[in-house]
Amino acid sequence: MTRSEKMFGKIKLPYIGQRMIKTSVAVFLCLVFYHLRGYDAGTISAEAAISAIICMQPYVNDTWEYAVNRIAGTLIGAFWGLLFLLIVPMFPIRGIPLYALMGLGTLISLYSAVAIHKPDTSSLAAIVFICVVIAYPEVEYPLYHAFHRVLDVLVGTLIAIGVNVFRLPRVKLRDQLFFIYTKDLSQDHLSQISSPVLFRLSYLNKDGARICMISEHAPAFFISQICQIRLNAPMIVMDGAGIYDTNENIYLSRSCIPPESSEWLMGKLNSMGVSYFIYTVNKNRNFIYHHGTLSQEEQKVMQRMRSSPYRYYLNDDSFDQKDIVYMKIIGREERAERIWRALKDILPQSGLRVALRPQSGLDGCSSLYLYAADATVDNAKKQVLEMMREEHPELKAREIISTARHHSEYEAIRLLHTLGHAYEPLRLTYWIREKTRKEKES
Hints:
Layout: H1 3-9, H2 18-36, H3 47-55, H4 60-87, H5 96-115, H6 122-133, H7 142-165, E1 176-181, H8 195-206, E2 210-214, H9 220-226, E3 235-237, E4 242-245, E5 250-254, H10 259-271, E6 276-282, E7 285-291, H11 296-305, E8 311-314, E9 324-332, H12 333-343, E10 352-358, E11 365-372, H13 377-389, E12 396-399, H14 409-423, H15 427-441
Parallel strand pairs: 1-2, 1-12, 7-8
Antiparallel strand pairs: 3-4, 4-5, 6-7, 6-9, 9-11, 10-11
């Protein structure tokens, strides 16, 4: 292999996506539209093609939103541009005073868009205004000129909508198992997953997508929200310590803390004067016990969590140590970090692991979660894949992770759209990808 082959062989070119194809098709149709109207290469307006490029979005809903904004901004800019072309010729204004009036007209266009509560259209309104008036004083027929600027934008916008609504041939990858995190679908585990997000998730499941949801918490937080959705894959809960079937409401697997490790850990925490919760799973139910004196933070958590019908808080020590899935310590951030530093180096020796996370609903508080060392999300993914491969041997794992720092409803829906495109890619894109993969394997 030559040096250039080694160099360029490492370069991975992106695949041609649906948006690229649809945008190029929309531009082509805009040019054909003007060609059929008798325009030649020197007279075809570029504004229709530009509008099609701007309005073409990855998803149809986004295209409609951009289209409405584009049309509104066009009408505002065209109105003030036409008014400018009708009024200014009455006065002998040229040079810098004329440009000052154009600047004033730009300001009025921007302000008009904001005044009608369409701030997203303000820049478009200003652009169209400038496009209409920039040719002054060479404009012979102002009304005709403004009308055609509006027509150009409408043509591009409508073509973009028509092309985006059209579905290119796709293929459904039923041999894929997709992993997504519940924290990417809502702000935190105490927040409700919005109806549009649930609707999209339900649609994907009904369409045959196999989605395994991963939660850092017990299934009780999500059972009531997704009870109407029959997931095509079990759910990974408690940060990998359990695998739960939300359709049958049973645990398929759980990684409990070994009794000798839990006994050592309880003795260690007692010697440190730390109070803690003990989370157990018995007969497919979550039982939570508390040991020590309740702090203010722990009391707040218990008051909020007791209302759930899917977990049971008990004040005795009647649990079986072989049922302990994890332990939890709640406290102020400084105290939780101090305990974490004291435990993180000695826990692995006892077959345990620790995770430090902010406590939802309590500002300035954190929680320490203590699990068995093998109770990890990676191990749980392997277990889920093995379980499902008993019926679907061809199944492959694929993880969909959000890159957003703050998870809003919009970002959650976009994440599910990303999953949808991964589950149902363009047939052409899939064919190219598979051909490239087989060539590399050969």
